[in-house]
Amino acid sequence: MVRLFHNNGMNEKEKTLTAENLLGTRIERMFSSIAPWYDFLNRGLSLRQDVYWRRALVKGLQLPSEPFILDLAAGTLDVSLETVRQHPQALVAAVDFSLPMLHRGREKLAAQGQPRILPIAADAMALPFANDQFDGLTIAFGIRNLPDRGAVLQEILRVLRPGGVAAILEFIPPEVGWRLQLYRLYLNHLLPLIGRVFSRHAFAYRYLAESIVHFPPATAFCQELQEVGFRQVRYRRLTFGVVCLFYGRKA
Ligand SMILES: C[S@@+](CC[C@H](N)C(=O)[O-])C[C@H]1O[C@@H](n2cnc3c(N)ncnc32)[C@H](O)[C@@H]1O
Question: Which residues lie closer than 8 Å to 191 by C-beta, 6 or more apart?
């Protein structure tokens, strides 16, 4: 595994003192602590819909042959694996800042003898790549966890080559109405309970609920993508609108 962190020109003290960095540390610890249960709970809590969501995310990416892909917030590498399943000639750089999550992913790579995915420990807020490197980028259930979404979208644009496409999969709050009420009941009560029973980390699942309701609606997020500079922005809701696929192209 490759570890690449750079500090945006700040010294270590300055870096440690930023609120964003503190939040990032907390999030990193949270994912590291649930890593052993992450895949199991994902499948269970979504009734295996998560597998279908990632498949749909990668299917919507239009890629050249032998593409170079960045999978950001790659976690246990499910999206990276789906990418090489659909595009066997792809090379994937899989970036996450949680080593335990990447280690779980590496076990899967070893089990499948998969050499085309390179796990890299790094922070999505300061990507250790030169400009214009990647043909495509995937980020599934990651953008919601990043303290400065605008800054990360800029980073994504920077490392995509011109014409490259970003594919984002995220939970979004359903539009108003009974669906929202029902979903809130699930998020605020059932989800933390199941999370506590299985992973003993109810906080992680409370955090999940809160971060989902605070994520912007689909049209507002598309607007953010356009404002940062993405073109041909489109979205597609899945599973009663609780998750959404977003695509945007670098001009
Ligand atoms: C909900 S998981 C998603 C994992 C994977 N993409 C999937 O589809 O299951 C979110 C991941 O984002 C990572 N993450 C959150 N903030 C990050 C950051 N600033 N830099 C790198 N990884 C980050 C976490 O460590 C975690 O593995």
Answer: 45, 205, 208, 209
Ligand 1 pocket, residue 97 CB under 6 Å: yes
Does the annotation place 132 within a ligand binding site?
no
Q: Enter the tokens of residue 90.
A: 């792809």
**pLDDT tens by residue, 150-169:** 999 999 999 999 999 999 99
Handedness of CA 59, 62, 66, 67 (dihedral sign): negative
Q: Quick one: how far is CA 63 from the chain centroid?
A: 19
* Nearest-angstrom CA–CA distance, 246 and 221: 9
Answer yes or no: is pLDDT of 7 > 60. no
When mean pLDDT is compared over 25-39, 43-57, 96-110, the highest value belongs to 96-110
C-beta 100 within 6 A of ligand 1: no
Tens of pLDDT, residue by residue over 234-249, are 999 998 888 999 999 9
Q: Are strands 230-238 and 160-171 parallel, antiparallel or unpaired?
A: unpaired
Does the annotation list 76 as a binding residue?
yes
C-alpha atoms less than 13 angstroms from C-alpha of 117 in its C-beta half-sphere: 31
The whole-number average pLDDT for the span 123-137 is 96
**DSSP type of residue 63:** -
Domains of the chain are 2-171+216-250 (3.40.50.150), 173-214 (no CATH)
Q: Which residue out of 30, 53, 79, 98 has the highest number of ligand 1 atoms within 8 Å of its CB and is therefore the one to mutate?
A: 98
- Our answer on whether the CB atom of 31 is closer than 6 Å to any ligand 1 atom is yes
Q: In the predicted model, what is the mean pLDDT of residues 111-118?
A: 96
Q: Cα–Cα distances in Å, from 117 out to 140, 150, 222?
A: 16, 27, 29
